[in-house]
Amino acid sequence: MLTFLNKLLIGPFYAKNAGTFLVILLLAFGFLSATEHKALITAALGSPFFLAIVFVLWGLYLLKTISFIWQELTAPEHFFLQTFWLVPKPTRWALWLAIQTGLLLPIIAYAGWMVQMAVHYQKWDSLSAIVLVMLALIGTGAAAADYRLRHPNPESIRLPHLTVRLPYELFFPTFWLRYEPLSFLLTKAFSGLLLAGVCRLYPTDDYDQRLLLIGLLLAILGHSQVGNQISEFEQKYLLLLPNLPLSWLQRLRRYALTYGIIWLPELLILLRNCPSDIGFEYIIRLWLTGWGALLFMHSLAYGRNIIPDRWLSGVLATFIGGLLAIMFGVPVGVWLVLGWLGAVGFWYRSVRT
């Protein structure tokens, strides 16, 4: 039974999120050295605040695993799993605990590294907190999976809601926040924490502005799935949109404003964590570059049936090529111009063809 559930849940989870894990691995082990990782772990072990931030990130990952299991349990092709609740409760819980342990394996491995360092530095309070949190995460995930198994169609409480007329530019951001909050939270948390961390890391050594550009590149690639989400949203809810009497420039302006709203939190993060050696105008140019790059990716993908594996390969190639160009000293002004010109050019081409 465990082998069957492993093939049904654990394998597809890692396959579905391979792109996310790839970006995390590139960030964690390509961008930071082992010494810097140890320094971060040591700081977390000695600071309850930083340790709490680590626990929050682990909690976000747990929510992602719970969301995946709930989706799989309610998928039409997996309705036969409803008979799983007939398995005796101790056996069922043991299986859920094993499945949740497999899904949480990446953070369990990192927690093991933290426990090893906690033993080395004799941080017994932090060690106890890490072990208790890991047990709580595994138990919570198993309980959530078993609850959804026993309640496949839970009744929801309907509350009165306020109807507000939204402009088109807010359609997708509102939908994303309301109906896909986990995707929104993970995307913005990854991008925001990455930019904040790069800004905080900047004054600690002899870094130059290329460090900020590398952080910006990773934050942009963290939004690489947003264009596909917008296309799916329009194909499902805005079927008449392509037939509206709007020029290509009017359509581009609407998408530009939509991406500007999506990218706005990054501006606040950059301004809040701006290094003292970096001027305000450079931060603005950095943010405008990211805005143009998001619109550029949208223009590349709009109206095309792109295979996910091919898109992921393109994202990886963009990261490698962009990293090399940044290391060779291509300034932010060039990226700014290329991003916006590329967005306008490819959009005009895709609409006219």
From TrEMBL:
Keywords: Membrane, Transmembrane, Transmembrane helix. The keyword Transmembrane applies. The chain crosses the membrane at residues 13-32, 39-63, 93-115, 127-145, 182-199, 211-231, 251-271, 283-303, 315-348. The keyword Transmembrane applies. This is ABC transporter permease.
